[in-house]
Amino acid sequence: MEFNLKKKLTKREQYAVYAAGCVVLGFLLLHFMIFPLMENRKRLDKSLAIKTRTLQEMQNLKSEYEALSGQSGLSGINLSQREKGFTLFSFLDKLSGQAGIKDHITYMKPSTTGDKEGGYRLSQVELKIKALNLKQLTSYLYMIETSRNMVFVKRLSLTQSSNPEGFVDVVLQVETYET
For 88-178, which CATH class? Predict the structure, then answer.
């Protein structure tokens, strides 16, 4: 008993079987070859985009690091160019004399915190100044902030003075780094 399918089917049925076979073969080809290649391509494109963003971020961080390193180097140079024996307390005391507010200072509290890694100490002085007019205050703050000694005002608190009208009481915290 010989099974010959070709002889039992008409030409039209044979074309239908061939067409169905081509459709099934095409489906298998798409499902197991083309679609996985397309998915892989999408995944690679997505991965490339993520890695490109990461690279760009790393380049930005590198630029920022180099800028900060250069700035740190300049800060170190500026610190080394200070006069010998520089102390924040004496510097602020001298500036208060130049600004004409030395008599208004109620107290000056110095403090220092050490940094074991960088070799620098953070020196702070808290000042309380009574009954200043705004011109005296701005003059003193200007002298502090524009000095070449890398001194900066960390905190400033103003309250209206009770004695003369139009004057203020000031609590000021000034910092600098020392070697």
Answer: alpha beta
